[in-house]
Specification:
The structure holds two protein chains of two kinds. Chain A is mainly beta. Chain A contains no helices and eleven strands. In chain A, strands 2, 4, 5, 6, 9, 10 and 11 form a seven-stranded mixed beta sheet that branches. Chain A has a four-stranded antiparallel beta sheet with strand order 1-3-8-7, with no helix packed on it. In chain A, a hairpin with a 5-residue loop joins strand 4 and strand 5. The chains are: A mainly beta, B mainly beta.
């Protein structure tokens, strides 16, 4: 059973297009995240949701809009794609935020290439 | 904000021991994680420290000193499959009052025969 899944795994698109990435977790976790990993392999938090509430929004351009229809899903929509958006996007989840270990479980990643 | 420093790259020999250091500066510290990431794959959780001292788990151990803002990951009996990036991540409270985990830039470890 896949714990955290993302679709699509690869996404190649042209500048100016709009695209979405979907994420689902079957771990029963309350918290979900989106990360961007650039070519230098730096893993940077973009958004975090806890019980469907947005709690972290890290200076991400408003072309990026997350949406959590329920606790098991966190999707990422990107408008007007730019060359600099090319990266690997990871979804992750954790059982909670603090008070215990609450390690994060990562999805396989979506490699986005903007041409 | 946070400042997390790790060496960019390290090389070690199969069967040997390697120590990967991580230093951080933060307020409201609430835990430090180590993750392993093989090339082209997702990060996977290795260890967690919130109190000072050593946590041992098989061939991997992690140490934390909160007063020094310092942690290390110790890998023993290195195997070729340990070639990967090792990410140090610190949890603290962000300006909005929520817990946030920030990742370091990672240390790429190459294990050679």
């Amino acid at each position: 059973d896949t714990a955290v899944s993302q679709t699509p795994k690869y996404l190649v698109t042209q500048m100016g297009n709009d695209k979405s990435i979907k994420c689902e977790q079957n771990l029963g976790h309350d918290t979900m995240y989106w990360y961007k990993q650039d070519s230098k392999k730096f893993l940077k938090i973009m958004f975090s949701y806890n019980n469907k509430e947005l709690i972290i929004n890290e200076t991400v351009p408003n072309r990026f809009s997350p949406k959590s229809p329920d606790k098991a899903h966190l999707n990422l929509h990107i408008n007007s794609l730019e060359l600099g958006d090319s990266a690997v996007y990871f979804c992750a989840s954790s059982a909670g935020l603090a008070g215990a270990r609450y390690e994060q479980y990562f999805g396989p990643g979506t490699r986005l290439t903007v041409t | 904000g946070q400042n997390i420093d790790q060496p960019t790259e390290m090389t070690a020999t199969e069967g040997a021991i390697v120590q990967i250091n991580c230093t951080y500066q933060t307020s409201g510290f609430n835990g430090l994680f180590w993750y392993q990431q093989h090339a082209g794959e997702a990060p996977t959780f290795l260890s967690y420290n919130v109190l000072d001292g050593l946590e041992e788990k098989g061939r991997f151990s992690s140490f934390l000193s909160r007063s020094k803002g310092y942690s290390y990951l110790l890998l023993k009996e290195l195997q070729m499959k340990d070639s990967a990036s090792y990410l140090c991540a610190v949890r603290d409270r962000n300006s909005g009052g929520y817990q946030k985990v920030t990742f370091g830039t990672g240390t790429k470890l190459q294990v050679i025969p």
